[in-house]
Amino acid sequence: MLQTTIEMEKAAGILKLLGDKTRLTMLKLIDEQTCCVCEFVEIFQSSQPSISQHLRKLKDLGLVKEERKGQWIFYSVNNKSEYYSFIKPILDQLPDQDDKLKELEKKGTRISCC
Amino acid sequence: MLQTTIEMEKAAGILKLLGDKTRLTMLKLIDEQTCCVCEFVEIFQSSQPSISQHLRKLKDLGLVKEERKGQWIFYSVNNKSEYYSFIKPILDQLPDQDDKLKELEKKGTRISCC
DNA sequence: TAATTATATAAATATACACTTATATATTCA
DNA sequence: TGAATATATAAGTGTATATTTATATAATTA
Prior knowledge:
homodimer, alpha+beta
């Protein structure tokens, strides 16, 4: 097998994180874009702590990276992660979620600082 | 995007099932082989009901198929499943688990009926 | 046909997980 | 510098999930 493999325990841990609709949708959204916490709060109609806690789990495994810009913290998928090649084929099979961001833009609540 | 997509909710449900070390290892094992319940019990050092319940969940989503041969029921990944193309790239990135079956053969507890 | 072996299912229990509530920290702006 | 905004964290709570215990079903074999 030429393909890179990933330790079983690690793989299960990552898949468990992806096995949540909110986190999975988050990852798909920020695979090629960037979102801040308050945008997620609006998109998922969830509380701010709930969103923060989901992001924390993704960050703990190094799957996402954050970048502060003023008062906002923007999240995106960490394509430098050693597990990116593991999750990328999964994300690629998910339906595009850009309509969710389009909705924010329409409502004028999309944050595009700088 | 040319790739087939899968509904978000369904994808999360499947990934949640894969996000368990026992089930993930099971799937990897039976992607190209066939195993019966008692073999899993020995491989994972788990109780028989525990193994049966894991298999039930995989079967409920159609990810595995079963075939009775005498007193044994053999399980294998259902490559006819509409979700097989979703899980296959994941399984392909996992380390080979054949050593687990080799171990059974060495101990003489591998079931190879017929 | 009775005993044995393999598997499934149901109920009970213990643990893991997501979400809420409350609070802390950090940045911006008046 | 004080108020407002954005985010994080900690503690508490409720729900989901895995595992055990107990029992049922099905096939085999003596």
